[in-house]
């Protein structure tokens, strides 16, 4: 499928963890009564010097702003992604992605587990695709109360499914899933594949895998591409960054994962969900392996 317009990221932005933290202060001193002064001793043996009128007290130094770039588990990935964004060099992108999967997330399995909302949305989407392949487009749409859309353009039908596949919510994970679905629909529209009823099983499977790739891109963008890195000021250069990321993730995953969808029509809902988990884990492994092979 084609590449849609450059990824703008979900509406929920990332805010450094230190922004809303309360300023740590000293604990209040216990209320201990002062000891009485000895006879003949002044009550305050160390009186404060008199204030010098007209002289302002020295200003306290401003605490240093916490450093957010190059720190934490994604520090290496952020540094290399920033170099990639500045130079356009694919080798830096590969280093960023390899580090992101292996050290930043702790491996493909943990990376897949972080795709919570996307995995749930992927399960719902793949269930619809299975139903289409089992019972036909009309019956599958009827189960969603969308039978009136039978015979309509495929992109319009998937857009009407948006709230079912990716329920709206305020979390970052949910925003990533909805953005991935919207981008996959744009790719489908650009292909001009016709009506929903006429999509082949292969085309439906490819749409699903495009959603998988797009959601991984969204996770990467928000983990390492939107946290304290230097992005190109030129819009065309920024679009090239998003395009190269999409080409790499999509190119290393979609063709390799198609075989995992063989026998989809024989799976029940529980097995469909398990398959989506497996596909996300395999996708992150493919991204890491391809990145390391290119280094």
Key structural traits:
about 300 residues; disordered N terminus; single chain; mainly alpha; 11 helices
What is the element layout, followed by pairings?
Elements: H1 75-87, H2 90-104, H3 108-113, H4 116-135, H5 137-142, H6 154-160, H7 162-165, H8 172-191, H9 201-225, H10 235-257, H11 269-294
Description:
The chain is an all-alpha fold and 295 residues long. The radius of gyration is 28 Å and the shape is globular. The chain has one domain. Helix 1 runs antiparallel to helix 2, helix 6 runs antiparallel to helix 8 and helix 9 crosses helix 10. It is built from eleven helices and no strands. The relative contact order is 0.17. The chain starts with 74 loop residues before the first helix and ends with a helix.
Number of helices: 11
Q: Could you say how many structural domains there are in total?
A: 1
For the largest beta-sheet, the strand count, sense and barrel status come to: none
Radius of gyration: 28 Å
Order of helices and strands: HHHHHHHHHHH
Overall, the morphology is: globular
Count of extended strands: 0
Strand content: under 5%
Structural class: mainly alpha
**Helicity level:** 55-70%
* Uncertain ranges: 1-45, 47-53, 55-70
Q: What is the first-to-last residue Cα distance? A: 27 Å
Average pLDDT over all residues: 81
Summarize the structure.
The protein has 295 residues and is mainly α. It has helices spanning 75-87, 90-104, 108-113, 116-135, 137-142, 154-160, 162-165, 172-191, 201-225, 235-257, 269-294.
């Amino acid at each position: 499928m084609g590449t849609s317009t450059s990824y703008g990221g979900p509406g929920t932005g990332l805010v450094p963890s230190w922004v809303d933290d309360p300023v740590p202060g000293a604990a209040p001193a216990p209320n201990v009564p002062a000891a009485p002064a000895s006879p003949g001793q002044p009550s305050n043996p160390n009186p404060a010097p008199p204030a010098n009128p007209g002289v302002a007290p020295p200003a306290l130094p401003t605490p240093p702003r916490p450093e957010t770039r190059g720190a934490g588990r994604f520090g290496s990935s952020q540094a290399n992604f920033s170099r990639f964004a500045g130079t356009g060099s694919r080798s830096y992108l590969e280093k960023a992605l390899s580090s992101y999967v292996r050290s930043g997330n702790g491996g493909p399995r943990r990376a897949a587990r972080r795709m919570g909302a996307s995995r749930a949305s992927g399960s719902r989407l793949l269930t619809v695709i299975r139903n289409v392949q089992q019972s036909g487009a009309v019956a599958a749409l009827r189960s969603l109360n969308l039978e009136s859309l039978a015979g309509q353009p495929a992109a319009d039908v998937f857009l009407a499914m948006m709230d079912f596949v990716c329920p709206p919510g305020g979390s970052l994970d949910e925003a990533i899933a909805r953005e991935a679905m919207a981008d996959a629909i744009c790719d489908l529209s650009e292909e001009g594949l016709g009506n929903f009823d006429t999509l082949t099983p292969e085309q439906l499977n490819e749409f699903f895998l495009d959603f998988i790739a797009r959601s991984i891109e969204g996770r990467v963008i928000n983990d390492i591409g939107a946290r304290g890195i230097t992005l190109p000021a030129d819009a065309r250069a920024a679009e090239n960054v998003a395009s190269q990321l999409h080409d790499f993730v999509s190119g290393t995953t979609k063709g390799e994962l198609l075989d995992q969808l063989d026998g989809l029509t024989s799976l029940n809902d529980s097995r469909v969900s398990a398959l989506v988990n497996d596909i996300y884990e395999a996708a992150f492994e493919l991204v890491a392996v391809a990145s390391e092979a290119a280094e």
